[in-house]
Specification:
Elements lengths: L5 E6 L2 H12 L7 E9 L4 H14 L5 E4 L7 E5 L6 E5 L5 H18 L9 E9 L2 E9 L7 H17 L12 H9 L4 H11 L10 E2 L12 E7 L2 H13 L4 H17 L3 E8 L18 E8 L6 H15 L7 H7 L11 E5 L17 E8 L7 E6 L5 E7 L5 H20 L5 H5 L9 E2 L2 H10 L4 H14 L17 H15 L6 H5 L3 H12 L17 E2 L2 H12 L7 E9 L4 H14 L6 E5 L2 E5 L17 E3 L5 H17 L10 E9 L2 E9 L5 H19 L13 H11 L2 H14 L23 E7 L2 H13 L4 H17 L3 E8 L16 E8 L6 H17 L5 H8 L13 E5 L8 E2 L2 E6 L10 E8 L2 E9 L5 H20 L5 H36 L9
Parallel strand pairs: 5-6, 8-16, 10-12, 12-14, 21-22, 25-27, 27-30
Antiparallel strand pairs: 1-4, 2-7, 2-13, 3-4, 6-7, 9-15, 10-11, 14-15, 17-20, 18-23, 18-29, 19-20, 22-23, 24-31, 25-26, 28-29, 30-31
Length: 1040
Amino acid sequence: MKNKNIEGIYPLSEAQQGMLFETLSAPKSGIHIEQWHCTLQGNLNPSAFERAWQRVIDRHSILRTGFVWKEQNEPLQVLLQQVKVPLKRQDWQDFSPSVQQQQLETYLNIDRRFGFELSKPPLIRLALFQLGETTHQLVWTYHHILMDGWCLPIVFQEFLSFYQAFSQDQDLHLEPSRPYQDYIMWLRKQDLCQAEIFWSKTLQGFSQPTRLGIPAEFDSCAPPNERYGEKITDLATSTTAALQSIVRQRRLTLNAFLQGLWALLLCRYSGELDVVFGTTVSGRPADLAGVESMIGLFINTLPVRVKVSPDASLWAWLEGIQIYNLELRQFEFSPAGNVHQWSDVPGSLPLYESLLVLENYPVDLSILQSAELSLDISQVCYKGAQTKYAIALLVIPGSELKIQFVWDGYRLERVSAHRILEHFLTLLESIVVNPEQTIAQLLDQIPIAQIPQIKTRRERNQSSAIAWRTPVEEVLAGIWVQVLGLETIGIEDNFFELGGHSLLATQVMSRVRAAFGLELPLRHLFEMPTIAQLAQCIETTARAESPPQPIVPISREQDLPLSFGQQRLWFLDRLEPGTPVYNVPAAIRIAGKLNLVALEQSLNEVVRRHEILRTTFLLKDGQPVQVIPTESCANTPTLKVTLPVTDLQTWPPTEREQEVQRLIIQETGQPFDLEQGPLLRVSLLRLGQTEQVLVFVMHHIVADGWSVGVLIQELATLYEAFSLGKPSPLPELSIQYKDFAVWQRQWLQGEILQSQLAYWKQQLSGTLPVLELSNEKPSAIVQSFQGAKQWFALPKSLTEQLKALSQRESVTLFMTLLAGFNLLLYQYSRQEDILVGSPVANRNRVETEPLIGFFVNTLVLRGNLSGNPSFSALLRRIREMALGAYAHQDLPFEQLVEELLPKRNPSHNPLFQVWFALQNAPMPPLELPSLTLHPLEVDNGTVPFKLALLMWETPEGLAGVFEYQTNRFEAATIARIIEHFKILLHNVVEQPEIGLSVLIQSLELADKEQQRLQAKDLEAANVQRLKKMRQKPIRKHSHS
């Protein structure tokens, strides 16, 4: 679309969004394609014909509209100023009538399947085929996203009026039609609160979609051209007249009557007395002036809930349905997606699977022609859009009631579909013959033995989750089920929409390596987030790649090198011995009667299982090595863990809690000796007979955050078994940490190492900036690790908005929060080049997941904020940068530092000075039989970075903590930083397209407003103080 031809841009209605998604999901399927054709008899004026259609398109903006969705926060409709009517003309006069009919049928089928490219208006096509000298066939095809059936007579009447005028060399001026965008604006102003109350009450207690018959076991065998089946029948004129008479006598609408019949049919089929199906409503609000002549998609599909009472009077029961329809009228605008959310039916299931439609607008457009028209319109045929529901019944009023039944050929066999229509007609004709029969008698008209079989959507999904098309897809499905913790997954489900994030993506790819022996970059899962896409990638890659080197157990008799990560920690410990900065603490409050013997036995079993917890580090021939004691070494006996208990039961409650915190901080702050060990300490603080606190402290060189989860999970499993006198249920580990350390050094060399180094050298090329924040104290000569923390929480609503924004932009929540952190740092530094350190689990091999050890690696994430980007643009930059970092995460940070050789400055860390982490490492639920466990926050008073932001998810929303070095920041400064971070996040979810400079200005405005309010409060306080001083009595003094 050329910008100079754009007249306007505005959002879609929810109905349009649904049609857009369904069209994109099923291209070339003919879904939502409407087609109307007729025969025109008479001397047709080609010029007037084309001009008339052009004038119609010019009058109605929706007919000049296209749709854009790529790289947009939400889909948009783009209105063009000028669009030429797409008219195709062909001369078929040389063909015989039978060939002409064959040609027409072929064209109609191809035209429907061809569909439309939604981004290129007009989404309408006209074809005019000359069959004889005065005979033409007109085919009019359009996409349902433009307009509904109510618009057909409006558009066609306008066409006929213009044609009649133009064919007589006259012009015609009609009253301007109100544009569709006015309706969109009206929709946006509606208050959904009352609608939510109505629908929540109406649908309360309904939790499963109504079954449409007996669940079928057959496989779909419908050929492609029968994806959707259709059968049309006309009710006899006499039967139609009798029905209309009965309905009028009972003061009932035909719509309520038909809905009652459909409810009875579903009741019989499902065996339920409470059924729900869909119905269409015009959706044209009476309070929108001129709505009756507007062109657009107003129609809405909403649920009808009917409770069947077999013993009730048929007509009184039908009257209740009519009252329901009247109550529904004021909520016709309700978005169908919201209605589903307000119900008790899970979002993974449809709210209903059948549709009943009464088409109360003229489908036979020949009735619109006037006596003055030089053309005679006949043989009008209309083919509506294919349904997305399993079954749909469309009823068209007339002297002969026309009933059109449409079904999904993948879920319903033709024989069963025909039977459903027969049963509906049986109910209808039965009432015509005997209007006084009871509901129970009507239900008996359908023999149970004739209830059709239908393959329900839910069962089909479950079937799909088992019967994959290829073995690769089946293996991948098992991996996703395991990692995401879901029961079933479809091959077209999006990994990130199911709750996946970067850490889970790493677990998926590590299992892919183990299962298929392939090295695939993490980027592949972001770019191919469905099982079907990833399976195809794996099958293609497998043909060209050799399997990666496995991690295998090695002998302890040889010198055991440190992993790259361990070596850096060992070096830092030698540089500054006795520092507690690299202690990894954890504390758990335990309520209940604790079995100390079982707990101590469990601890020792964990230490036996994980060699790393018995490991010390010595210098041998100038190189550090791991030393693991064994039973056979007399000088280095196997480590046995004892559990010292500190009794605080006699302390007063307030002082006792203070003492607990003091002891935890004391234990956490006590340094380790890497040469002597042990590098794990466990202690118990007894607070009462059934209350205690368990404290763990490990050195980072033997454990990381993931390891804490492994430790707690194994302790819980072992404690439960040992408390019952049972043996350990845990399988032996296939490898140990030392095996990983050796493998890492063997694998990370040659081409692999050079490829990783080349990426990071390019990524961190040029002068690396040192982040200096405007509110920072002057830097100390030597960095101090003394620190403090300030916690904060984000509302659940903001958390959901951040997740929704992440999904729309195809990024992870981590990437969105990192982009927000970059903006925050820009606010305080005005630096456009920002380096942030961030941890990555680095457990890229499935066999490393159950190990305790130091696997975590540090990535340097370089943010580029140049050019005043919008937040959406910044997210795209962050995504590309982060995916590149993930693909090269195996290079140890230590080697990167050595390679780049940044000039060391004792006042700050090399490469980066700030830290960000979204903590989503797996942490098992703290559950034990007869015990209640709660984690405690542990603060050892040290912070390794100038400023660190750690965040995590809770049921109430995102939570976080800013850790900061106290020699650099005041507490009040950090509090202000937190408020600015919250404001930024609120602003970016509301307006992700605004530029960085505007976002920063919003912070400055917020500060000025805060200062204004503080000044106002201060002034008010001063006024009050002056008033009190004036009111104070003056004491008189005598003079002597």
